[in-house]
Amino acid sequence: MPAAKSYVTPLDYEKMTPEEREWAVLTGRADLDRAMKEGTPRSTTPPASPPAQPSADYAVVGKPQKDLEGYRIVTGKSTFTVDVYLPDMLYVRVLRSPLPHAKITSIDTSKAAALPGVYGIITYKDIPAQVLAGLKPVMASEPALVGDPIAAVAAVDETVAEDALNLINVQYQQLPFIVDPIAGAKSGAPLALSNLQSNVSGPDFKVVRGDVNQGFASADVTVEHTVNTQDQQHVALEPHIAVARWDNDVLTMWTSSQYTHAIARIVAATLGMPYSKVRVISAFTGGGFGDKTAVYPYHLVAALLAKKTMRPVRYELTRLDVFYEGSHHFQVVQDIKLGFKKDGTLVALQADSTARLGAYSRGSGLAGDTLSGARLEYNIPNILLNGRGVITNTSSAGARRSVGEASGMFALETLMDVAAEKLGMDPVDLRLKNINETGDPESKLPWTSNGLRDCITNGASAFNWKSRWQGWANVNKGAGPLKTGVGFMALASNKGSKSPPMTAVVEINVDGSVRVVQGAAHIGGPQRTTFAIIAAETLGANLDQLSVSEPDTAFTTDTGIVAGSRATKSVGSAVKAAAEDARAQLLGYAAAKFSKDLSRTVNPQDLAVTNGQISLQTDSSVKPITFADAVNSGFIIVDGQQVPAAATIIGRAVVPPVTQYAQQTYAAAFYEVQVNVQTGVVRVTDAMQIHDVGKVINPLQLTNQVHGGSVQGTGFALTEDYIYDTATGIPVSSNLDDYKMLMINDVPKITALFVESNDAVGPFGAKGIGEPAFMAAAAAISNAIYYAAGIRLTSLPMNPKRVLEALKA
Amino acid sequence: MWDTFITATSIDEALGLLAQYRRDARIVNGGTDLLIEIERKVRSPKVVIDVSRVPGLDEIRFEDGTFHLGAGVTHNQVVGNKLLVDHAYPLARACWEVGAPQIRNRGTIAGNLITASPANDTITPLWAMGAWVTLQSKARGKRDVSLEEFMLGVRHTALEPDEMLTEISFPALKENECGTFIKLGLRRAQAISVVNAAVVLGFRPSPLAPRVSEIESAWITLGSVAPTIVAAEEAQRFLIGETLEDHTIDDAARFAMNAARPIDDIRGTAAYRREMVRVLVSRALRQLRDETERADFPA
Amino acid sequence: MKTILHLRVNGQDHEVYVAVHKTLLEVLREDLNLTGTKHGCELGECGTCTVLVDGEPVLSCLALPIELQGREITTVEGLADGATPHPLQTAFAELGAAQCGYCTPGVLMASKTLLDHNPHPSRDEIKHALAGNLCRCTGYAKIYEAVELASKT
Q: What does the pLDDT look like over C95-124, one tens digit per residue?
């Protein structure tokens, strides 16, 4: 590990918004901050790398398992929030600002209120100042983006509510607005909100390691470029929705969410209620990709209108509402520069990142996340990183499948390709030469595992890289209008690893069946099945003994968020620990029963559990017993004594965060593209991703995650673009016609391969996958386009217009 | 939102209702376009007149070398009609290229014309084949209007408030004629293109291989490059008397660019669209010369 | 204005009293409690709301039920034969071709039409039949495999 002294901007939690704090946890910034504040260990020797977990052959883990919920889904019986219709329910529609920045000078809802079928209307006048969704106004008095909510109507049906919106008279005083983050960061730029001093939000994220000037001075080869990546919307297919009902002073809310407990906590705090009196339910969530992690205005609109009307209220956002109110993968402009020795050794990195925050996101954390991979993927003795967030009159930036890392990796890994050519090296060899295999140079903590080298070498061999990539002399060598080329990228991600504290419960019932009580969303992972596998393996149970609870804050523990690719690793850790607790109790019961039946002392450690049978290891002639036999024995051994016990076993776990190691996931990607040099249309014709997942828990579903991630990543690279008209501040691709996502026609063969690094801390050695699968695409595609057609594209998406412009340049 | 829905069982009944309600009324047949227009807040009729039960509106007739499509004929019906595939290939191709079967199945050709978006794919080939529409009203009876006269601008047609589009007609391609339709979208399956082009050529009868002799007639129409469909007249004139050599094709494609008056929008810049006109027209002409325009069309 | 509609859905006759402007999607979900069919976009771009009318795929968000009286409407709830899942349902569940599952009912219905017309489709034919169905989770690979598996049973 480099011995150079490092500086990282410390976090000031007092000044951060709740959302910023959440990002800090999800993106590993909190871990880094804690480690930096605790200081480097006094010992001069760095902490030893943790041992890998044994690579065992498991009974359930690692075998393909179908989703336990599969048949419910295919028969149309899985209950998404959109399927919640309550008796006497009202429907909501929301009037939204047509202007990017304005002050409401008057608002008249009297005509709308008089419309038959209208039962409640709220505007900013009805909302106490402290009631905000994060920093977003529930109803705006100073709308700061096109689509900010102005008035909400609850009516007998959506048509009446919609008609009522047309009767609301709003007068606006138009204010200056800003869409472009670079322009917005300049002094004298129009302020996105009138209470701001500057559009630049908070102190920059800054990392200093070594001496970057000295580093570049010592470099033989220097490369740099500026990269501009776009706003994207997640387009989870289930639109955002909240259904609220009050029973006296208890609020029940159904919502399509990635984290019910956080919604309950924040709604309670916002409305000044006890957390215990807000119940949030999210049985099935129709996609999220990061967009369903926070509290939005719509949650509070439903709650407040339900309270005002004392009737259940349902607000299902239209697709246009989702584009406006949902969060966005944010535009980032990055300047990045790398210095190398002749032999390809990296000696210096300088990067500057400006993130467009939209109107209601804050801080430099999002920009900082774009710089994370560059800081950690390779050994670089001298670096200087700067990141800032700029507040603009656009939809708010937020978590979207990798937060900022996909943009950061695009900037870094395309520049690595440029460098490889300049150095005359195979891009694969250049990566292999520089991998940081030890740990975080700033926190000085060792990795829990690092399988990047295997990802790259296994992938290069499986993709047949050596024969498909024929050296830098063969760039743009194809004839005819269709040019084919291959490209490669490696990546390191702080996602898929983070493990804030979380809890889980595993119950063994009197009939021997097992219930995992957890609150993580079913969002397609499929998470519930993953937890069943982990619990079954830990207990020695059969998978068909297992059931897994649906997220309902009234009945489940806070299992943590399903985001940041962390469900398997962190929720899985809690489930595993709870299952271990349950197993210990089960063996206590079993030992008591064996002792009684055999009239001799049998200790729990003499027992083994496999396939739902508990057997005496020391004597194979004794007939094994079932979980039910053990639980119903009515006794348990405590300190060697048989004591009567209640029947149902409840195993619990509260798992602390990992503080002694740094955690990363890794991947390599190889893509082949075909570039039509007449039309500029790029098609991906072959794709391969190789992921260090630590340990494969469920190969069937893991492969799915890679396919889906690759397709979304290809959309990020080629088609998806949330565009604002800079003259009017109006978003122009806010429907599924103009916001282009890949359909089945556009998808190539995608190969998913896995490296098992047997992570030191994950359950059975597992790490996450969701976000790395998305990140492992854009840079490889760009590099392949270069190899095919000789053009370097540094703005995303690489759509036909840009490709053709580059070809003509 | 409308509050009156009337199911007409004959054209006369529908025309009577149109005469009565005029601008407040909207004909529907499937509802696809209407519901999209309401969602996009383009139109908000008070009275909806359903003609899906009117007998005969979904018929395709072929008489004296001319096709007549009832107002209820869907994209799928066109794709599934062998006569149309054989003798009106540009239209069949455009219908097939509407990627989603759900839209092909319900969406009507008449609906495309009435919606009058220059990006609607079926208008371009109909224009190239010299199509006309029959408009009918209670007061004035029937009138035939060419597409040039019918399509007045973006979402703007010559249809009077009391009129109904009852039929679309166009001559079948003759023995010596061939044609095709090509579109460029940002994604393979989508209803709306960045640019689309239809080409119909007539060759002087030749005892040699077909399509090697001089061109007698040429129709090149372009979609999504102007407020309505445009014909590339300069390119059409240029092609008359020529044979399809490589350089002729390149020149014709460049002339076609001159007809395009595209705008910058989210799907493409004006410059990009103009360039795509050249690429698509040249590709279409080459396919026609090489007789490969049906290569990837399902038999 | 409200009207009485006679709709035949999944082989059963229904009489519902609904506002005339309601879409088929709304009537199925709100009046017939058949919530398996989902809302995705309102503009006919995502295919999530696909149902079958006389065996052909239709976007229920862009269809007027008042026009569909007397036609045979099939939703995902009508796909199984009693308690026996349709081969497509079995294949999607067994292969994990449904992830979050929100697009799945629409994909299943479009696939059913394909297999009814063409019991052993090629990949290109599957592609063409499902070209109007957006899926944000799977990347479509398992959807191909599931339709192929179902075509073999």
A: 999 999 999 999 999 999 999 999 999 999
Q: Which residues of B touch A743 (CB under 8 A)?
A: 99, 187-190
How close does chain C come to B119, measured CA to CA in Å? 15
pLDDT tens-digit readout, B66-116:
999 999 999 999 999 999 999 999 999 999 988 789 989 998 999 989 987
CA distance A598 to A804: 82
Residue A467 lies in a domain: yes
In CATH terms, the superfamily for domain C2-78 is: Beta-grasp domain (3.10.20.30)
Q: How confident is the model at residue B191 (pLDDT cuts 50, 70, 90)?
A: low
- What is the CATH code for C87-151? 1.10.150.120
Most confident of A692-696, B1-5, B24-28: A692-696
Closest CB to B188: pick one of A163, A743, A805: A743
CATH number belonging to domain B177-290: 3.30.390.50
Which residue out of C2, C37, C54, C66 would a mutagenesis test of the B interface target, given it has the greatest number of B Cβ atoms within 10 Å?
Answer: C66
Quick one: CATH architecture of B4-50?
2-Layer Sandwich (3.30)
Q: What is the ipTM of this complex?
A: 0.97
Given this model, what pLDDT does residue A43 score? 47
Q: What is the token pair recorded at B277?
A: 């006109």
**Res A213: pLDDT:** 98
Question: What DSSP string describes chain B?
Answer: ---EEEE-SSHHHHHHHHHHHGGGEEEESSSHHHHHHHHTTS---SEEEE-TTSTTTT-EEEETTEEEEETT-BHHHHHT-HHHHHH-HHHHHHHHHS--HHHHHH-BHHHHHHHT-TTBTTHHHHHHTT-EEEEEETTTEEEEEEHHHHEEETTEES--TTEEEEEEEEEPP-TTEEEEEEEE-SSSS-SB-SEEEEEEEEE---SSSTT-S-EEEEEEEEESSSSS-EE-HHHHHHHTT----HHHHHHHHHHHHHH-----BTTB-HHHHHHHHHHHHHHHHHHHHHT-TTTTS--
Which candidate in B183, B272, B280, B281 is best for mutational testing of the A interface (most A CBs within 10 A)? B272
Name which of A163, A733, A743 is nearest B187 (Cβ-Cβ). Answer: A743
Does 3.30.465.10 match the CATH number of domain B60-171?
Answer: yes
Tell me the pLDDT band of A1, cut-offs 50, 70 and 90.
Answer: very low
Question: Does the distance separating the beta carbons of B188 and A746 come in below 8 Å?
Answer: yes
Contact check, Cβ <8 Å, C40/A237: yes
Residue A46 has a pLDDT of: 58
What pTM was estimated for this model as a whole? 0.95
* Residue C24 pLDDT greater than 80, yes or no: yes
User: What's the confidence (pLDDT) of residue A216?
Assistant: 98
pLDDT tens string A486-509 = 999 999 998 876 666 688 999 999
- In a domain, residue A37? The reply is no
The answer to whether residue A75 is domain-embedded is: no
- Whether C44 sits inside 8 A of B102 (CB atoms) is yes
CB contact under 8 A, B31 and C59: no
| C positions 8-27 inside 8 Å of A (CB) | 19, 21
Contact C42 B39 (CB under 8 A): yes
Put simply, whether B184 touches A (Cβ < 8 Å) is yes
State pLDDT tens for residues A607-629. Answer: 999 999 999 998 999 999 999 99
CB pairs < 8 Å spanning B and C: 86
Domain that holds residue A592: 502-655
CB contact under 8 A, A801 and B272: yes
pLDDT band for position A22 (cuts 50, 70, 90) = confident
Alpha carbons A299 and B232: distance in angstroms, whole number: 54
Residue A195 maps to a domain:
no
Residue A2 has pLDDT above 60, yes or no: no
